[in-house]
Write a structure and sequence with these properties.
By secondary structure, the chain is of the alpha/beta class. It is built from eleven helices and five strands; from the N terminus they run αβαβααβααβαβαααα. Helix 1 crosses helix 2 and helix 4 packs parallel to helix 6. The longest helix has 15 residues. InterPro entries: ATPase_dom, P-loop_NTPase.
Length: 220
């Protein structure tokens, strides 16, 4: 399993939502490579009634069909439910499910009506259930404009909003457990608190931290 560091506050927030008796609507956003997907996967690891769907760039019908496949893998009883976002979400609400839709902006790109359709089913059905709906996005502008802004259909319905930031320097020892404290902080300065660059250093066009720290590269 890939290393997962800190995010205790965010995990506690999500767990509180999952355990609450009422409906919860959570929005998680932040730039890419900060661990949003891993955060939500970790948060639902012990939940049998959780659905995790990661949207991809595709046509709206394909995206919906992929969502149906994900849902029916977890809830086979819903295999005959009509292929419609509102109908599917309403059915999941009746199951008091935890539903995570990752990379939500990809869905909006193909169907701009989706936020208003989710707003309608939330107001009419889901807010009276024990469901938790989690929308995750890496496009900060889309999440802010289409989900969080005052003019967005879903505005004001969130029970929790998580703006995920890079890991703090205080997490350096956990992030680099193989190093002494000084070296761990130097390594952290190279990767900038971005978990994915620690796991995939080639993507940042950097040498591994163990090779770089000896050079005493200044922190910029």
């Amino acid at each position: 399993m890939e290393q997962f560091v800190d995010r205790d506050i965010e995990l506690d927030q999500l767990t509180d939502c999952y355990e609450s008796e009422g409906a919860d609507f959570v929005v998680i956003y932040g730039r890419r490579r900060l661990g949003k997907s891993e955060l939500v996967r970790q948060s639902i690891a012990d939940w049998d009634d959780a659905v995790y769907y990661q949207a991809v760039e595709s046509t709206a019908p394909n995206q919906l069909e992929q969502f149906v496949g994900t849902v029916t893998t977890q809830f086979s009883s819903l295999s005959n439910v009509r292929r419609d976002w509102e109908v599917l979400l309403e059915a999941l609400g009746e199951e008091d499910a935890v539903v995570v839709i990752d990379e939500f902006p990809f869905l909006i790109e193909e169907d701009e009506s989706l936020p208003s359709r989710i707003q309608r089913v939330w107001d009419m059905e889901l807010q009276e259930t024990g469901m938790t709906l989690v929308l995750v996005g890496s496009s900060i502008s889309v999440m802010e404009n289409k989900v969080l802004s005052g003019s967005a259909p879903l505005y004001g319905r969130q029970t929790a909003t998580i703006d995920l930031k890079p890991l703090d320097v205080g997490d350096a020892r956990q992030f680099f457990p193989e190093y002494d404290p000084e070296t761990a902080i130097t390594a952290w300065s190279i990767y900038g608190g971005t978990p994915y660059y620690r796991l995939r250093p080639a993507l940042r066009n950097e040498r591994p931290a163990s090779d770089s720290v000896g050079a005493r590269t200044p922190v910029l």
